[in-house]
Amino acid sequence: MLISCIKKRRSIFQFQPQSVPTNVLKQCLEAAIWAPNHRLTEPWRFYVIGPKTHQKLASIYANLRAKKRANTGLSNYQVLYDHAVKKFMAIPQVIFVGQVLDSDPVISKEDYAACACAIQNFQLVAWELELGVQWSTGPILTAAETANLLGIDLAKTSLIAALYIGYPKAIPTSSRQNVKNLTCYYD
Length: 187
Ligand SMILES: Cc1cc2nc3c(=O)[nH]c(=O)nc-3n(C[C@H](O)[C@H](O)[C@H](O)COP(=O)(O)O)c2cc1C
Fold this sequence. Notes:
There is one protein chain. The chain has 187 residues and is an alpha+beta fold. It has a single domain, classed as NADH Oxidase, CATH 3.40.109. Helix content is 44%, strand content 15%. The protein is built from six helices and four strands, in the order ααβααβαβαβ. The mean pLDDT is 97. Bound molecules: flavin mononucleotide. Flavin mononucleotide binds next to strand 3.
């Protein structure tokens, strides 16, 4: 049942080491593009990361993370960098999601909403196929090095999500408040 998949899906932060089969990823991507999108702008773009690019991204990720944390003086840059590379390399599959930008702010807002719907479609089908996903937003999305590596013009396409994907090692718990606290009914 769809409702059961929706309620059981969790953001996953720890993955088993095995890789994600391409045909499984393709099913998730196929679900993503059937999201509603106003004016059929199809504003989403997907960047599926292979092993060589994953390694290069790990170093971009680690540099950004280590620079930020080294500034707090808690640990030195190299220790933080090495730890962050290990963390990023432990993610079996990374996919970036881009939104094609529109000069009209109303269309841009609608397009962001459509991309979010696409990502949720992706996450739900992934969950049904026993995969876990973490939707991550962080400095790696806006870094010029990331855009250069992926060949993206950030003036035309905004990276809105890094999806970290793999078979879950641990499933966190989560909760929501009762829907009745969030809903008004009118006669
Ligand atoms: C737009 C958006 C951005 C998010 N960015 C992050 C992020 O940067 N890091 C992270 O750990 N989780 C991120 N998440 C995942 C949320 O933290 C997660 O959905 C929330 O904790 C609820 O958990 P659940 O997905 O298991 O229900 C993001 C989710 C959304 C919708």
